[in-house]
Amino acid sequence: MKYPTRFLELIEDFKKLPGIGKKTAERLALHVITTMDDETVLKFSNDLTAIKKEITNCPVCGVLQEAACPICSDTTRDQETLMVLSEVKDVFVLERTNIYHGNYHILGGSIDFSRGVMPEDLNMDGLFKRLEGVSEVILSLNGTVEGELTSNYIKEMLKDKPIKVTRIAYGIPVGSDLSYADDQTIFRALENRRKYE
Amino acid sequence: MKYPTRFLELIEDFKKLPGIGKKTAERLALHVITTMDDETVLKFSNDLTAIKKEITNCPVCGVLQEAACPICSDTTRDQETLMVLSEVKDVFVLERTNIYHGNYHILGGSIDFSRGVMPEDLNMDGLFKRLEGVSEVILSLNGTVEGELTSNYIKEMLKDKPIKVTRIAYGIPVGSDLSYADDQTIFRALENRRKYE
């Protein structure tokens, strides 16, 4: 039997999502056709189209924003503390724990010489330009070689400035991604942050 | 931090898919925003909208079709054998094994008195109307109480007709869904089908 073309196309769409293989993609596409009502599918489709238009990265800190950045526009946050993260998704992990109330700065990756990712490919300039009034920079990068390298680079760049540079403590399992850490680990790691020298 | 509304909406959309919980839905929605390019997301969105319009169920056998039914319009298939299935998705399992070449008839469920699903709620009339020229009806329903009940009902309805009624053999684990069976199990079950009496 020849499968309907659009069905095969939708399977391919689902396969592009992380952690979704061929079998799961088939199951999801079938569910869309046979079980979901028209309205639900239409809403899903509209949300997909709209999200790329409506949601952008804040030009200052890199956090996802709709109209205004939910972090930068929140004046109740501690303006003297700036946390450096490698990815947008890490903000969600931190905000979920509700223990950090300073600002964020997202680099958009880590330095990785083997893949040709240099400091100038990341949002480093943006970081160095927004340090006025900042008394502490907390480096919350991944516990990987690349995260280490990036932390080290930033520490070196800031060494002559009157800013305390701390690093999130190694509660994060070494070699793993920050976004896999549970709330408790994040909490401990943040509590135990130490001066980075 | 307040999450962007559209982001929360997309998470809800993903959560409506089978096997996708809150955490996975968040991860998928984030991937759409941060990693997928606009073109890929737009195609995904378009495929979702289009699929409900383009793909329908064949009014005769119930198989998914685009323009014409891929099963009914295929005259090379054995027109004397008709396999009864409970769900559309079961066709994909059977066709994948490539060992059955007759026609299909999809009931759209199983008789289930506890949930008020009666024979008249299923496509039974359609089945009894398309038996001309059919010499064998193969019942490939789920190995559940409901599947058993439905097989039994059809057997009773056909007992006075000159049609051989067989049932797929119990290679399918008892109590499980047909769509979870692997190819080999399906193969064995079909090879060992026996007259249902």
UniProtKB/TrEMBL annotation, chains A, B:
Domain of life: Bacteria
Record's keyword terms, sorted: DNA damage, DNA recombination, DNA repair, Metal-binding, Zinc, Zinc-finger
SUPFAM superfamilies documented for this protein: Recombination protein RecR (SSF111304)
Gene Ontology terms: biological process: DNA recombination; DNA repair
Cross-referenced InterPro entries: DNA_Rcmb_RecR, Hlx-hairpin-Hlx_DNA-bd_motif, Rcmb_RecR, TOPRIM_dom, TOPRIM_RecR
SMART domains noted in UniProt: HhH1 (SM00278), TOPRIM (SM00493)
One MF term in the entry's GO annotations: DNA binding
Pfam families: RecR_C, RecR_HhH, Toprim_4
NCBIfam families attached to this UniProt entry: recR
Family: Belongs to the RecR family.
Listed HAMAP family: RecR
Protein's name according to its UniProt entry: Recombination protein RecR
Gene name for this UniProt entry: recR
